[in-house]
Amino acid sequence: MGIWILNGLTVDANNAQAKKHIFIENDKIAQVLDASESSAPQTDGHEVIDAAGKLVTPGFIDMHVHLREPGFEHKENIATGTRSAARGGFTTIACMPNTRPVIDTVDTVNYILDKAATEGVIRVLPYGTITKNQLGRELTDFAALKEAGVIGYTDDGVGVQSAQMMKDAMALAASMEMPIIAHCEDDTLVVGAPVSEGSFAKKHGLKGIPNESEAIHVGRDILLSEATGVHYHVCHVSTEQSVRLIRHAKQFGIKVTAEVCPHHLVLSDEDIPGLDANWKMNPPLRTPRDVQAVIEGLEDGTIDIIVTDHAPHTEEEKAKGMMLAPFGILGFETAFSLLYTKFVLTEQWTLGFLVDRMTQKPADVFGLPYGTLNVGSIADITIVDLETEREVLKEEIVSRSKNTPFIGWKLQGWPVVTIASGKIVWS
């Protein structure tokens, strides 16, 4: 038995829209018919989803997530994390390696892949660490990790402080045609600071994280990328200076790509209501000027893709306050609706632009065979109700943790069906 999705609205990167009938057989898209030109297909013996009035897109792809397993299962695990992602319309996610143990051995890669296969509901692609235990002292076995199934190398959660270590890592990754994904942060500039250096920090007498803590590493790594020829990908860009450096690098043909998170596109440090640690994240919320810079960077192609940096923490951890609570907020379940409400409904972006940056573009950046609705492609499909406005409610969050600043926000454009490899995994 297959699945027919009838009368769904599709959109491409150029915002060309059409109504389609899509037939899924096994794990592939078997037929795509123009609904305006063909009569209703024969659906006997198949499951039917009436998508009239709804958006049908390739499954969303998130190349920066934290599933917390192994080691921090009290925050999230692969089972709960993949279900949370499915609720948000994601069918492919790439998990960061700052677990315990970190993903620096073949055994840990195998553990992640086995867990995802048996307990997860969507595709999980693991990253391996750049350095052993993320300590910045010794490179991991890149070749063994690649053979085991990692899709790139990153010490996300900490920046690689040694320029020589990063250059060695880039040269090795380049020789293997693998990307380096960098958390850009100079540790000497951030110790003891919970928020950005800006109006909120001044108002509350807090030490601030300066923009240059991120941009210094971005600039350094761009030069190292040029020297080694590696594909260098910048994590969660948040500052005007970083955008400027990446734009300049692309103009000179350096192989650099970049990502941005929804929260850095819609919030600044001036929006933080008080000392609630659900507003504490790394990178921190920056100034309105930085927010405008990252928006413009995404719009002009300097920043390539949207990621969530889904980072669950328990309520007990976040209750420790702005100074002691860990950095990080949830991202999966509000990502599309947040950006649709903020940018598409206000006509700043086209619907096609948003969908492209969450589907085809991430697949292109990382060379993945997903992100399309073409016949023969893997049947990863998300159906979105663009009309319904709904409040973000804590009790409806699927993630094991609840740490988000968007509780109580009214958003429009909610995923209602997620299909991964031909199977309905959220409805």
Tally of helical runs: 13
The dominant shape is globular
- Give a short account of the largest sheet: 4 strands, mixed
Structural class: alpha/beta
Q: What is the CATH topology assignment of the largest domain? A: TIM Barrel
Protein name: Dihydroorotase
Cofactor: Zn(2+)
Domain Dihydroorotase catalytic: 53-241
Keywords: Hydrolase, Metal-binding, Pyrimidine biosynthesis, Zinc
Keywords:
four-stranded antiparallel beta sheet, 13 helices, single chain, 427 residues, four-stranded mixed beta sheet, Dihydroorotase_CS, alpha/beta, Dihydroorotase, pyrimidine biosynthesis, 2 domains, DHOase_cat
Give the topology, please.
Layout: E1 3-11, E2 17-25, E3 28-34, E4 47-50, E5 55-58, E6 60-65, H1 78-87, E7 90-95, H2 106-119, E8 123-126, H3 142-148, H4 163-175, E9 180-182, E10 195-196, H5 199-204, E11 208-209, H6 212-228, E12 232-234, H7 240-251, E13 256-260, H8 262-266, H9 288-299, E14 305-306, H10 315-318, H11 335-344, H12 351-358, H13 360-366, E15 381-391, E16 410-420, E17 423-426
Parallel strand pairs: 1-4, 6-7, 7-8, 9-12, 10-11, 12-13, 13-14
Antiparallel strand pairs: 1-2, 2-3, 5-15, 15-16, 16-17
Helix pairs in contact: 4-6, 6-7, 7-9
